[in-house]
Amino acid sequence: MKYLSQHKIDKRVATVILCLLTMIFIAVTLVVMLKLRFNLYSDSMPRGIYREIDALPQRSFIAGTFLTDQIANFGLERRYLIHGRGLKRIQPVAKYIAGLPGDRVAIAGTQLFINGTLHPEYPVFTQDSMGRPLPRHPHTDYTIPEDRYLLLSDHRPNSWDGRYWGPVPINFILRPLLIFGDL
Asked: What span, in angstroms and rounded, lies between the C-alpha atoms of 127 and 125?
């Protein structure tokens, strides 16, 4: 009798584990098929669920990029970025597309201009929030080259973005699905 009841418990546990594994498999499959991306950590974009979309890059779209090793290593060292999974071992960054190929970008002191228009929502700081000096893009007046984009964030004024590392290629375009707000 004792063996029989233990067998029923073991069977129930196995059924629960199988159901949980099936739910996890379905959830992972949906995330991959729907090309979902989650922002739970970064302050430079609203926390939420985003979906990769097939679209041509346009100003104000959200774009994601894997930064160059040099930029990424600096960001990891300063703890601006977090470690990720996959080949790059770095999380991609997502920012708004503020500058397109052919746009003229100028930095004068703490001010950023795109095509001659001042953008006060993107102040250029000389130090980060810990008082450490911020790197400057080597050119203070340049034209964004083909296949490069100026990615900026106005969600947080001191976001570490294209103001400091310049134009970069983009790897994907995102559309917000569900924004959690600031947690």
From this structure: 6
Q: Please name every residue paired with 44 in a beta bridge, in sequence order, or none if there are none.
A: none
Dihedral over Cα of 46, 73, 166, 174: its sign: negative
Write down the domain spans for the chain. Answer: 34-181
φ, ψ at 80 (rounded to 5°): -80, -25
Q: What is the mean pLDDT of the chain?
A: 85
The residues facing 14 across adjacent strands are none
Q: Measuring CA to CA, which residue among 119, 86, 123 is closest to residue 103?
A: 119
50: nearest Cα among 102, 142, 40? 40
Instruction: Using the CB atoms, write b or e for 130-145: b if 16+ within 10 Å.
Output: eeeeeeebeeeebebe
Q: Which numeric CATH code is attached to 34-181?
A: 2.10.109.10
Rounded to an integer, what is the distance from CA 156 to the centroid of its chain? 13
What percent of the chain has a predicted confidence (pLDDT) above 70? 87
